[in-house]
Amino acid sequence: MKTRIIQDEPAKAQVTTSLLAEIRRTGRFTPVASYQVFGYVCAAVLVLSGLVHVVVFLVDGGPWEGPVSWRKPIVFGLSFGITLATITWLMSFLRSGRVGGWIVVGIFALASLGEVFLVSMQTWRGVASHFNETTAFDGSVFSFMGMLVAVLVLVTVYVTVRSFVRMDAPPSLAWAIRLGLLLMLVSQGVGAQMIAEGGNTFGTAGALKVPHAVTLHAVQVLPAMAILLLVSRSTERRRVRLVVLGAVGYAVLIASTMVQTYDGRGPLDLSPLTTALALTGVILLAGVVVVALLGVRRSRSG
């Protein structure tokens, strides 16, 4: 028995290496242009900023919620970093060219760095970063943050439109990226409403930041699911159907947060309708992921 285990270990290592290589190939995770290296470096800086503020929060303490808390530089750093890395990655499929890539990734990276810097600066100053017009300086900071967000929205609109024109990717991955970008625009629309409402709350207790956050990260979840399907043993037509099914599940999950928020309920004040929507969305999305993982397992063992 021991001898067989020892003999199986190189085979298992070879399968793992082959799987990782196939994921890198199908997902194009290796930077192919200088602007992508720049984008990934800036994304790493933003994520590192969020992690550093996690340490600061653990040491300094203070409230997690509220207009002045370490939560904001943590969440903004991590979220903007992940989003920038995603935009940088998907440029591989748009055939935008070197100049176009630098314009898109460069603008998105600089705007993201500026936004996170201003949020972090205001937190370190001990003042609110959003909706703060106590002084002329604070008002200018908030206005400039709004301008940076507008720039990010315009870049996202451009990338989304380009994704529907032509994509150098299998149909399943292409549709996952397109649908993720569309939902990202919906998230930015919710963010605009947060500004219009003058805060994070709609009605009595509806937390706009919940649908904003859930919708924003569909652009990571759906393509990741599509990449798993690409590695699995399946036809492309079936992969497209599964991607659409997963996207429907994610959309239903988003709908549950929307209904919850616009009903003026808090995130944990679940109604029968929002509970049913959330469970349906999670089951559909998780079902597609399980099918993808089983397909990956079969393709490796076969």
In sequence order, what are the helices and strands, one letter per element? HHHHHHEEHHHH
List the strand order in the largest sheet. 1-2
Q: Using DSSP, what is the number of strands?
A: 2
- Distance from N terminus to C terminus (CA atoms, Å) equals 23 Å
Number of helices in the DSSP assignment: 10
Largest sheet: 2 strands, antiparallel
User: Which structural class best describes the helix and strand composition?
Assistant: mainly alpha
Radius of gyration: 21 Å
How would the global form be characterised? globular
Low-confidence stretches: 1-16
Helix content: over 70%
Average pLDDT level: 83
Strand content: under 5%
Question: Topology of this structure?
Answer:
Elements: H1 2-27, H2 34-60, H3 71-90, H4 97-125, H5 136-165, H6 171-197, E1 201-202, E2 206-207, H7 209-216, H8 218-231, H9 236-262, H10 272-301
Antiparallel strand pairs: 1-2
Helix pairs in contact: 1-8, 2-3, 2-4, 3-4, 4-5, 5-6, 6-7, 6-8, 6-9, 7-9, 8-9, 8-10, 9-10
Description:
The protein is mainly α and 302 residues long. Helix content is 79%, strand content 1%. The protein is built from 10 helices and 2 strands, in the order ααααααββαααα. The protein has helices at 2-27, 34-60, 71-90, 97-125, 136-165, 171-197, 209-216, 218-231, 236-262, 272-301, and strands at 201-202, 206-207. It has a two-stranded antiparallel ribbon. Helix 6 (171-197) packs antiparallel against helix 8 (218-231). It is globular and about 60 Å long.
Which labels suit this protein?
302 residues; mainly alpha; globular
Report a brief summary of the structure.
The protein is an all-alpha fold and 302 residues long. The chain is built from ten helices and two strands, in the order H-H-H-H-H-H-E-E-H-H-H-H.
